[in-house]
């Protein structure tokens, strides 16, 4: 069992910058490491190698965890699904720290699902978090999803997958169930005097992106989101909020940004 110690410099190290210890670990099928999250330590089993790249914790996980702790009021009480969960570490942290109702998801791959379940159990999360196997762009397993918050960290590595990711986001953020729920909330708000909600819009996609790729490639995703009917807002610290243009007003987005720590 190894203890993973992270500093800003190691989090953003080049992909080819491996220590001799890490090289030795690739000979094993799994490696268990202790990772420090805000207020707790988690024991996470990681694949030494996984063909779908769901093997390790990536830089955005830790940065996103810190940001969410500083802005926890935006996500508390939400019904959440994480895309590209990988090891499940971020979801486990949010469940334990915020008591967040969260579902993990990743490629349609049994090995990933079983590893997330293992990490849940060794960190005292039982029953294990619900999990959905879903490859972006494929038909989504839930016919009418009702998660009002989608989160992800460091998932923009594969440029060719951007159209598929945006297709999945369209299913999750534009479902009829969410539209009906939002219409009901708007009517109730008007009946109660029209109090303006400055919290995170419902639904919303919160994404932390810390990997280093070219600005041109990065912009392909955000431009694709806008072409698909979403608005993109940078909230600071490389965290982005993506919401349907026809469901969230610009004033609500700006009020939310002003409330962020």
From TrEMBL:
InterPro entries: Methyltransf_16 (IPR019410), SAM-dependent_MTases_sf (IPR029063). It holds the Pfam family Methyltransf_16. It comes from the Eukaryota. This is PROTEIN-LYSINE N-METHYLTRANSFERASE EEF2KMT. It comes from Salix viminalis.
